[in-house]
Every structure is written in C-alpha cells, then in structure tokens.
Amino acid sequence: MDNQVDVDREVVTQAGATPFEGEQGTESVRTVRSGGITPAGQETSRTVVQGYSPTGQETTRIASHYVSRPRPQGEELVRRIIMLVAGLIQLVIVARILLLLADAKTTSGLVAAVYNVSNVLVTPFDGILQANALKSAGSVLDLSAILALVVWTVIEMVIFWGMNIFRRGQPNIA
Q: Which tens digits make up the pLDDT trace of 25-50?
C-alpha cells in the first residue's frame, strides 16, 4: 500500500513490507523528497529503508542523492519575462476597472498610483468606442479599460504564438 503525505514541504512515500535481498523479515521503505531547493539549485532526495534481519535486529539503510534543476535560460526565460510583464499589465488594468466601479477616492495614494500607471496603458484606447465609460451613481464602468485589457491580452497571445512558430525542437500542434 502506498501512502503519500505532504509534511512541511516534504513528500513522504511509504511502501509495504518486503524482505531485504537475501534476508528474511520485513522491510519498510520511506522516500523523502525535499520540497525546497538548496542554495546550489539542487533538490534533495533521501531513501530510508528500515527492516529486521533474520536475527531480529532492526537495520536501517539510507541513500541520498541530489537532483540538479537548471535555471531557465534563453527562450524559456524570455517567455517567463513576457508572461510576468503581461500579467502585471493585466493586473493594473483590472485594478483600475474595479476601483472605478467601487468609486474609490483618488486621494488615496494607492488608488492614485493605480490610476496613473493604468492611464498609460488605457489612453491609446480612448475614443475608439462611442462611449468611453458608463456612469451610474458615482460608479464608472470604464469601457476603454475593458477594451485595453482585451487588446493587451491578445497582444500577449500573438507574441507567444510568434515564439511558438520559431521554436526549435518538437513542432507544437496545439
């Protein structure tokens, strides 16, 4: 029976009783994989084998190894940076839409900062629609911001599609 328990960033897998090679008795195998990364960028994995020898003494064997995980480079690093920037752009525009809907006070520093940053991203889309915003009792539904959110998301998708066209290796069929 395999049990998998997540304890403080460690995955512990326990296997059922099997005898040691050439020995009689029972054996309990426990594999512990560290969820953290060591400073050298390596993941620790340790296997603890406990059992009883034919004489009835408890025995323990431990095997450890390190798995190196390289940092992203080249195309993957560019992809992650683009995803981060696009996510931040989308976050700022969504925050603008929600703050305008909630009729947030512009005297707050955070609200003013969101409006100032989002103005740079939304201003190119002002005037495209007949009405830039719908107003009701102080709340504003900024249609230009919604259009900007859609266009910035489409731009992100086009960049990723372009990167997939020039990707080396296996062709992407999706």
A: 444 555 555 544 444 555 566 666 66
> What integer pLDDT is reported at residue 5 of this predicted model?
36
CB-CB contact of 119 with 142 (8 Å):
no
Q: For residue 27, which of 4, 5, 63, 53 has the smallest C-alpha distance? A: 53
For 1, 48, 88, the CA distances from 53, given in Å and listed in that order, are 22, 16, 60
* Whole-number Å distance between alpha carbons of 58 and 52: 4
The H-or-E segment that residue 144 falls in is: helix 143-165
Please indicate, yes or no, if residue 173 is contained in any of the structural domains. no
* In a domain? residue 172: no
Strands, E assignment, the chain: 3-7, 10-15, 27-37, 42-52, 58-68, 133-136, 139-142
151 and 84 part of one domain: yes
Percent of the chain with pLDDT over 70: 58
- Whole-prediction pTM: 0.58
113, 92 contact by CB (below 8 A): no
Contact 139, 113 (CB under 8 A): no
